[in-house]
Amino acid sequence: MPRFRRPKPESPAMELHALPADRDEDDKKFAGSGSLEEDSSELPAPTAGDAAPDSGVRKIEAIQAVWGATYGKYILWSGLAMMMIIFELDNATLYNYQPYATSAFHKQSLLAALQTMQSVVTAAAKPPIAKLSDVIGRAEAYCICITFYIISYIICASAKSMDVYAGGMVFYSLGQTGTQVLNQILLSDISPQRWRGFVLAFSYFPFLVTPWVSASIVQSVITGIGWRWGYGMFAILMPFCASFIIIPLFVFQGRAKRKGLIQPRALSPVQFFHETDILGTLLLCGGAAMILIPISLASTLPKNWSNPRIDVLLGIGGACLLFPFYERKFARFPIVPLSFFKNTTIVLSCALAFFDGFGFSATHAYLYSFVVVTRGWDARHATYLVYINGVVQCLIGIGAGWIMYKTRRYKYLIFGACLVRTVGYGVMLRLRGASNATWELYIVQCIQGIGSGVISSAAVVAAQVAVSHAHLASVSAFFLLTMFIGSSTGYAVAGAIYTNKFRGFLHHYLPASSEAEIETVFNSITGTLPAFGTPERDGINNAYSDVLRLITWAALGLSFVMPILALCLKNGYLGEGHNGVDAVEEPGEANLGTEERIGLLHDVS
Fold first, then answer.
1. CA nearest 366: which of 495, 472, 269?
2. Could you give the dihedral angle defined by the CA atoms of residues 300, 301, 304 and 309, in that order, rounded to the nearest 10 degrees?
3. For this protein, what is any one GO molecular function term (predicted)?
4. Cα separations (Å) of 539 from 74, 88, 299, 441?
5. Closest by CA position to 479, among listed 342, 346, 358, 390
6. CA angle, corner 97, sides to 91 and 102, nearest 5?
7. Half-sphere exposure at residue 309, Cβ-oriented, CA atoms within 13 angstroms
């Protein structure tokens, strides 16, 4: 990866980003108007209070200086590919074991609450893990995340109660979110802004295959060795595949140290506490958990919303809203640099991520359970339906990345995708029900995948190129944080609707059924159900359709905000450099060999 020299303030390069001589005239014209520099001017230069000393950034730049002209780069890309394959296979299989695990503990009604908890942890842990990777390095952070994965597999596979299983899923969420954000940070570290959308979207290429493979795996596991071994097998597979990216990172770091590009840095416990902003992390995670989880759990507790536990949790969550005040006044190295909130591109991109995550999670929380009960589908076919959205999203994301590469713009691409999302929810109200044909269910999933594919690929690029390389990890984590807070909110709303309305719908359609029979349907998808074609089965199917329709209305209502946000984005220019704040590489720097790169690193040391 080329080093990017920041031009002096008086340099004319600040106007045109020192455009290479072979750039065509249209590119030069566009670079001067609507470029990201206009928006990035809202972002103050990093200060001691904005970010910790970026040893993680320094290490990755040193790695790029010593990885050689060819083979080192390809080793790293191959390691990332292996990591993405196992990551997607894990994500595509373990998610589908949750309905069976909760049903085994007779706690199906807590499925949305469990997913809310996971999303809260997944969201809130991203900034601290990104910060950790900046403080100790990318490879070291990978090791910690894989350790979380292994612990989670062991706990979930051996769980004897819902509480223990939920505890295992907390560790799983930490491992998953850490690996996801590190994958994205590392890909962004080594790709220029013009290619960024394509690279990030293409990194999910395993998802084009894993849903179809995972469907067979899930079916075999559920009908054979059981869901517990579904978790257990990954305790071996995950660390093996992760070694393909972790080992090369450590090898290149060692080579860089021997050349004097990485200086050993001792951190005292007090320094580590401040630089990772542990107190800010606790406020962020605690506040999100204490507000969103009670929303899903309220109707499952005695006295529902009048239960004093709900009041206590919401009170603690409200107190944690002091997080922005703490970050502004007391944090030496804020986990989320406050300067991000002054940048309209970052704020709008993250808002789009929030609403996109909300709609996706709300409409998927009970989709798997819906088709298993109302259609009688086995695990394989239910998995196909759930993940066809992701397959389309991956394909469209790659195409969107290519369009951004060719046009160097992203605003109207995002706007069109937001319109597709809104129309898709409207179609979902009509085509997602117990009486709809199978192809109609798939059409709805594909439409949503088209919209999400563009938004997830383009919005993150808009946020990333608006900051310097030193803030890349933080802004990537902040973007994913808002996406998963949206996802958590979506799961929480879906859970609240399910737990508050589904039992009532069942009583309405099954007036002659006993309370025990109602509870069986309410809390499990594996219990004995009436035969298809009977009035009782039709009543259950109609109750499921009604509750999913209410959830879809919530997603549709919020989706109207997205096109407005997209129109407010600046139509930023994607140049050849790493971002729109640092200067682009100087002519000829892209082809520098190892020794020349090392010289550049020493020059700026």
1. 495
2. -130
3. siderophore-iron transmembrane transporter activity
4. 57, 37, 22, 20
5. 346
6. 130
7. 11
Rounded to 10 deg, the angle between the 344-364 and 367-375 helix axes is 20
pLDDT digits (tens, 9 = 90+) for 310-340: 788 888 888 877 777 887 888 887 877 778 8
pLDDT of residue 103 exceeding 90, the answer is no
pLDDT, residue 254, reads 84
Whose tokens are 């993405």? That residue is: 84
* Chain mean position to CA 167: 21
Spatial neighbors of 437 by CB under 8 A, at least 6 apart, are none
pLDDT in the model for residue 154: 93
Which one-letter amino acid corresponds to residue 449?
G
Separation of alpha carbons 78 and 83, rounded Å? 9
What length is written for the chain? 605
Give CA–CA dist 312/295, Å, rounded: 13
Radius of gyration of the chain (CA): 25
166: left (phi over 0), alpha (psi -120 to 50) or beta: alpha
pLDDT for residue 580 = 56
Residue-wise pLDDT for 561-588, tens only, equals: 999 999 998 887 776 665 556 544 443 4
Question: What ranges do the domains of the chain cover?
Answer: 55-257+274-309+338-568
Read off the amino acid at residue 407.
T
What pLDDT does residue 602 have?
A: 41
DSSP per-residue string spanning 170-215: HHHHHHHHHHHHHHHHHHHHTS-HHHHHHHHHHTTGGGGTHHHHHH
Name the phi and psi angles at 35, rounded to 5: -75, 165
Architecture in CATH for domain 55-257+274-309+338-568: Up-down Bundle (1.20)
pLDDT over threshold 90, residue 291: no
DSSP class of residue 7 equals: P
490 and 366 Cβ atoms separated by less than 8 Å: no
pLDDT of 96 over the 70 cut: yes
pLDDT tens by residue, 172-205: 999 998 998 888 888 877 777 777 777 777 877 8
Band of the pLDDT at 406, cuts 50, 70, 90? confident
Q: What is the dihedral of CA 574, 458, 334, 166, to 10 degrees?
A: -160
Q: What is the DSSP string of 362-419?
A: HHHTTHHHHHHHHH---HHHHHHHHHHHHHHHHHHHHHHHHHHHHHS--HHHHHHHHH
Tell me the pLDDT of the chain averaged across its residues: 77
Inter-residue long-range contacts of 414-417, CB under 8 Å, 24+ positions, other chains counted: 414/352, 414/454, 414/455, 414/458, 414/459, 414/462, 414/566, 414/569, 415/563, 415/566, 415/567, 416/454, 417/450, 417/451, 417/452, 417/453, 417/454, 417/455, 417/458, 417/566
- Return d(Cα 234, Cα 525) in angstroms, integer: 25
Q: Which residues contact 201 (CB under 8 A, 6 or more apart)?
A: 394, 397, 398, 400, 401, 453, 456, 457
Residue 42 has pLDDT above 80, yes or no: no
| pLDDT tier for residue 110 given thresholds of 50, 70 and 90 | confident
